[in-house]
Structures are given as structure tokens and as C-alpha cells.
Amino acid sequence: MEKKVSASVINRLPRYYRYLTDLLSSGIERISSKELSERMHVTASQIRQDLNCFGGFGQQGYGYNVKSLQSEIAKILGLDRGYTAVLVGAGNMGRTFAINTKFESRGFRLIGIFDTDPKKIGTTLTRYTIMDYKNIKEFIDTHHPEMAILAVPKQVIHGVAEELIGYGIRAFLNFSYTELSTAEDVAVENVHLSDSLMRLSYKLLEHDQNEDKKQESEV
């Protein structure tokens, strides 16, 4: 039976991919786990353990070939499959995501943007013309995207998701400020920016408490 890789390891892989991409753009061809750990502030042992879940990829006395390792991680993450996606919702969040995300460099292609607002339909967002959501079934039937990025109000998120599943969508990236859960054979990634703010608040509080303890010990 194939060993299941833990979610924590999978969660670290995109960060490895991002750092390796930056190394390639800087002309760095090989790197040791120690050097990579210093850049990423992750222990070398952790890096080796994570990569060993998929075969290791390093060479004793040489380290990692940056291009080869980036390519292997891309395969593990499915970035070489060329998955396609549609964006549903061209409001503030949807617009920000469409404008600032380098889709191709992240391994998938955005092929359509949809909204229900007559004022948005027919206008251009980046290089895409925003289409009427009522025509999304025909578009999906023709172009067969695997993924949908949802930036719609939370009141309608579940209905939209169920509808798109019925049309053949197999994965969702959800920006709608509420948890989306679906059938087990549908992949969901819920994005909560407020969670990041609260984690940041915790880190700041932890720092302040340590500073308070330090000052008390010096009194």
C-alpha cells in the first residue's frame, strides 16, 4: 500500500517550488539542503525528510540540482498537467486575484471570467472579456476547465459550487469568506485572509510577551 504523504508536507511544497524558481532566475544551478534551509528558515533535516517522501532527489556531496528539483516538485504538485480554470466573480477580490496572479508560472491557465452584474459583463479584466454567468455551462461543455476560482458572496457560494460540480468542475479555490465543503471527489482550498491576520496578531502578541518577560528579568 502506498504511503500517504501528510498534509503538512504538501503544504510546504509550494514554498519549495517558489524558492527554487527564484534560485533559477538568479542563475543558481545547484544548492545543498543546508544552503536551502538558510534561505527558507527551515531546518535542513526537515527539507530532506519532506523530499524523501517522494524519493529524495539529492546527491551525496553535490546537493540538489535546482532545475531538476523544481521540475520534480512541479510534477508532484501537478503543475505540469496544464490544468485550466475559470474565475466566477469579478468584484474587488476577483479583480485583485486576476490582476496579480501569474497563472502560467503557477502551473495552470485561466481561460474565462464570469459575473452576473450587467455593468461588468462585456468589459475587460486583464486580457479577458467578462462573460455572463448564465452562459457558463456552455463554456464548460466546450472548454472543459477542471477548476473554478470562486469570489462570490458567501450567501450563494454553496449553490454556485453545486451547480458547477454538476457541470463537471472538479476543484475549487474559494475566496468567499466561508467554508466550502463538497463531495470527497471534489478538491477544495478555502482561502481566509482574516486567518492570516489573526496568525500575524498571535505572532506579534508572542513577541510582545517575550519582550515583557525580558524587561521584567532585567529589573
Order of helices and strands: HEHHEHEHEEEEHEHEEH
- How many β-strand runs? 10
CATH architecture of the largest domain: 3-Layer(aba) Sandwich
Helix-strand makeup class: alpha/beta
Report the CATH C-level class of the largest domain: Alpha Beta
Instruction: Please list the strands of the largest sheet in the order they lie side by side.
Output: 7-4-3-8-9-10
Summed over residues and divided by their number, the pLDDT gives a mean of 88
GO molecular function: DNA binding; DNA-binding transcription factor activity
Keywords: Cytoplasm, DNA-binding, NAD, Repressor, Transcription, Transcription regulation
Subunit structure: Homodimer.
Function: Modulates transcription in response to changes in cellular NADH/NAD(+) redox state.
Main attributes of the structure:
219 residues, alpha/beta, Arc Repressor Mutant, subunit A, Rossmann fold, six-stranded parallel sheet, 8 helices, cytoplasm, Redox-sensing transcriptional repressor Rex, DNA-binding
